[in-house]
Amino acid sequence: MTNDELLRQLYDYTLVGNAPAVLELTNSGLQAGMGPETLLYEALIPSLEEVGARFERGDFFVPEMLIAGKAMAGALEVLRPLLAETGAESIGTVVIGTVKGDVHDIGKNLVNIMFEGAGFQVIDLGVQVAPEKFVEAVAEHKPDIVGFSAFLTTTMPMFKANINALTKAGLRDKVAVMVGGAPVTQEYADVVGADGYAADASAAVVKAKQLIAGRRAAALSA
Which has fewest Cβ within 10 Å: 50, 134, 135, 159? Predict the structure, then answer.
């Protein structure tokens, strides 16, 4: 099998979420001398971008996204340490967690996979994350973005509590705040003072890239 054929198969198997085949092809590519960046940027990431595009068109649904994401996550386990060795640039850092009082994490985990697949470094704080935990993580990791996830309408007010905690700690202007979750809307995100909102994992990646580009452009012109 040529390198091009291997990349094509890796793309196709990621698209349909065939995790064993994705892992096998990833290892085969590395054994054949292909660099981890090649496998990531020429097969895995384009495939996950296509998954996102199909989701947006209504051709794919959440189960397909989860299956494809899990297949890619297996490949990332192998590639991540190799990418670190090569010094491959992360496009940004994201701290993310489900807010205090909420234990739902399927949506957040899918967002994590899509972010990692797009080349972000993700620091996942888990579920039931208190405002002070977000503040500590932002102070420690200095991320480009902090993401708050809520599945329950009763926990959505924690977005504002978290933003207030960041403000009190003097960190609010140092990070872009994104919010999301099943009951969350753009209107609610605006009301609590978030910088970005995304309705799904695919849109979250697009929005995150826009926010980072905007902040970097503003920093350069300052």
Answer: 50
